[in-house]
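Exercise 7 asks you to align residues with tokens for two separate proteins.
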Amino acid sequence: MLHEDPTAGRAEHPLLQPADAQGENGALPAVLVVDDDAGNRLALCAMLDRLGHPVVDVDSGREALRAIEAGQFAVILMAVHMPAMSGYEAAKLIRARSRSAATPIIFMTAYGRDEIETSTAYASGAVDFIFAPIAADVLRAKVTECVDLFTRAHAHKRSLDSVTALNASLRDSEVRAEAVLQNVADGIVTVDEQGLIEAMNRAAQGLFGYQRAEVAGQPLQSVIAHDHWDDFIEAAAVNRALGSTGDGPAEPLETVGRRKDGSQFAIEIGISEMQIGGRTFTVGVIRDITERAERAERERRRGQALRREAQLDRIVFEEAPIGSVITGRDGRIERVNLAICMMLGHTPEVFSGAHLLEFTHPEDLQDSAAAVAAVMDGALGAQHFETRYLHAGGQVIEARVALTAIRDDADEVKQLFTQVEDVTAEHRASRELEQAQFEMLARLAAAAELHNDDTGQHTLRVAELSVAIARTIGLPEAQLELLRLAAPLHDVGKIAVSDSVLRKRGKLTDEEFEQVKTHTTAGAQMLAGSPFELLALAEQTALTHHEHWDGSGYPTGLAGEAIPITGRIVAVADVFDALTHHRPYKAAWSTADAVTEITSQSGRHFDPLVVEAFLTAQRAH
């Protein structure tokens, strides 16, 4: 049900004078903003400020009607849902007034597009919708389009008013009519019932490059581009039918004109008919719109580019299968996609404004912060690293991360773009595979050691002592753990040595000793080619644990620090354990005798630093 007219008996709206609203005296046409939310009005006015149009903002439909009584507007931005009087009701009352019957109304709503609402809106007089959240570029584009439509319609109305004046003048005086015709700024062409040009004013002659006598009696088709003629005739017929309803002048047509020299240009033609002396003439009011058409084409291309950019953004960011996060310079999260929400079990609201490091595993904070610092300090390209995040449910998520800076025109870091790939399952499978391979090789090593040690504990004791020595030296904890697992495989190559040689009680022949020496290279070959760090360390240790500090060892005669530290450590642990335990070819030595032997070989067989660490570990033991 429509509200009663709220403007009855009211004074003119105090915020606007009619001349300003209509864009007279050089002023730009005014825009009316109707919204009961003051914050929305303020934001809309700020968005429109760049266009330079006077903006009047009111808080209700009643105030909108008062403003329209005071002045005319090029476009009205109307909120749909307002108390007391909805936007639809206000629009119907606005349409009922003659001075605002043709003013474009754009409805603004936070609700989604709905067929019933859309039907109601257009029935109320809407020409377009804007849906929240409102983008400034979209708002300005729609307002500019409506203002342009308003300006063109009024310009053509003035031209048609001049034509009407011409009609009246012709009845009174042909001389007076000619003067009016020639002094109209727009091009005017009159065409008789047969479609032949009767007259063309000076402005039209300037547009098309013809003298009046050159086109008199020629078909109108002579000034319309040939490949646009059929479309023009069809549109003109539709326009004439619409104009005959009595609702005012028909909308001007856009087509392509053809000059005398054959060049083509965009034109706009407002068509009307008049009776003169019992004859019917068609009058075309013509304007060169080349600049406007070029501007429209630029806007069209820009719109296409924006749509492509939005589509690309949706594909690359929103719909990306891996987590994507955009943070500000301060590390606070500004935007996340669905993948990261599902990965870490949080909603976008939880992420918004939080620091990405808040979701990082405490043990990985330092490395993650270092990557961010590197990007902020100007590191080129993306920073790639692996880290761990904490899921909302408490699980640890292992992730592969790419961190990239988003820079402004001054090449300053504006934002950070983080891509997060969940590799938890991948790492779990890798660890399981590594563990399976390790267990298989450990069993082979234990089987090989049974040749010399019936208990099969030699490899484990060597591992334990190796870790004690390495810890005394100061190796990192992560390397100690790898050494603990890799050291038992140092003699895995003995599986390839003859059992009779390994169990021989007497002194080995040179040939037999050469066979024993092959266990280093055989073990390295068995462990070679693995992508896992653990097995790579085991390969290195198996190959080098019989090298001597003075270069007299085997298999390659490495010396000094050319021997990997793990090979130097396991060499001491291996010899000490072999001396202090029974072997088929010898009895067990006392610990004191074994320590003395190790000490005596410092600088020859063994690295002095490792020997010192061994002695320290022994004293602590």
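Second protein for Exercise 7:
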Amino acid sequence: MGELDRLVKKFEEWLERGKGRDELEKRHKKLESFQDIKNDVKRGKISTQKILEIFENLYSIDNRQKPEVKRKIESNPVIAENLINELIYQGERGNKFEGIIANLENLNLKIKYITFRQISEILCLFYPDRYWIMNKGLNQSLENLKKLGILNEEIDLDDSSNYNELGKVVEMILDKLKSNPSISQILGRTPNFYDADMFLWYLKDFVKAGFENDQFESKNLRSNLLTHYFSSKGFYFDENLVKAFYSALKIKGFVILSGLSGTGKTKLVQLFAELLCPCKKCHGANKQPNNESCNDCTHIFISVRPDWRDGKPLLGYYNPLKEKSYESTPLLSFILKAIKNYENYKNHNKKIEEVNPYFIILDEMNLSHVEYYFADFLSVLESGRDKDLWSKETIKLHNFKNELESNDGQKIQNEIKLPPNLYIIGTVNIDETTYMFSPKVLDRAFTLEFKDVNFDRYINDFQQDIFNDEQCQKLSEELLKDLKNIKNGKARFCGAIADKEEIKEAIEMIKNNKIVNEKTISKEIVELNQDLQPYDLHFGYRVLDEMAMFIKYATEAPDVVGRLSKKEALDFAVLMKVLPKFHGPRQKLEKPLRKVLTWCANKFADKGDNKLEWISDPSKDVFVEEIEELLEKYDNKKGIFKYPRTAKKVLLMLKQLYETGFASFA
């Protein structure tokens, strides 16, 4: 018996118990009520009261929004009556959903808070054998189907053009419900799409409980296991941020985590590095490794000091007071250890299991000017990779032809190349004691912001996940296997960005995959770049390659990390690789920021809300109070944006621009 068959069997049992019976009765009454209203409307017996009854019974309208919807309908009942008449006219003819939505737009039948989600619910209740419901509340249900291996691709429920994609899933479920005679017997009729919707809502809570009790035979490890691992350590992070962090690190090898102090940026990096570290000390409870004395550790923690003015605190220096002597540092010793590990694998045919990723953690990276003490690294990181995946350019250590002996007994060459198994992660707090990053630094890295906090979820989920040693070991093995980026039996680590064949695959992927309104990912990127070109804020081929690789990796990430949808991946890519270039006064940034905000918005973002017309029309004036109002209600309003993370950052930058006359990404 397959997983879906087992779920349908459990659904059958649930329908016969108290909670299931109550839900079935409630839905049965609602369906009957809508059929009566539909028949009355067809006979010309329509009234404002019946229209209100329709919208009051839609679960896709938030209870907080229903009073406003009621007020809108009572103030102009004709438009609501025309909307319902048109839906019944179109539904009787069995017209396609996308055609119905387009027709409603053409007829200008718009009511505040009534979107394609509510239209899909009304159509389903009127014609349950023809139409299904598209509600973003089903995200968790679809995620659960992915965990069980029933569903492969993510479906973006914020985009009405994915209605037919969702339909394939709903039809698959409906076929299973119809093939179970007991369910037809309980329902007293043949199952329809409204029953399939009930199954999906049932699926949200049941599958979560099933995973906790090991009831399912999922082929893969639990999805998003990395996020749950952090939670087991007492640190809550947004799942999509963790997914983006991992994919960015895998590609570039240089990631900056910035944002609010106390959100766990440093702990995320430490826990991640310790999880992948072979050193036994890193896996003891509440123990922090001493990197200077532990030869097995594959990570080093460096606290940046405000008095750093050049690279000497990181890489050391030639000591002229001692003959041919070099004053080394813990970081240089660590880099040499990473180099030796990769050389042994590459040149001495060591097993692939013996080569490891090495992590440099730079804490409070902006306590000093990054451009001063980190300049050597910034140049080398952008030099590209050679055929063996080493950095093309070298970091100069001294000017002697022969090796120098360091204070700790090591032989120090005059220059070193960075190996592909070396990763640099910086953490940044933005306050009056720190320096702002220049666009140059932000452009060199993938930059992730940790600003949003969710106290409710943090309190409710606090250390709900418990990991034993065996689970940690399995998670570590899965991550190491993926992070090594093995191709043709060779470990490439973050050097894969130099693989032209893989870049070509990534470009093909964004060229062929549709994302919104039948547009491909590449079309969306091209449009954004064209919007920015008049303001000299467009981006080049390197950024496009990195964005394409990020989207590819983020949408194909291992199950233990979890995958981003294509739209979410593009949202993160623009946020991390395009917006960091924005830095300057109002005269320079206002128009391009407004252009980016319009690009982020859904096609009909302002329909039914005249206050938001400035989003889709950059020529319209906007006041800082309007931006503040949108930000205050952002969780409820973000559905108007197809790329909500980028849009929120743009709104914050616009607010800063109008208040101070200057804005920057950092």
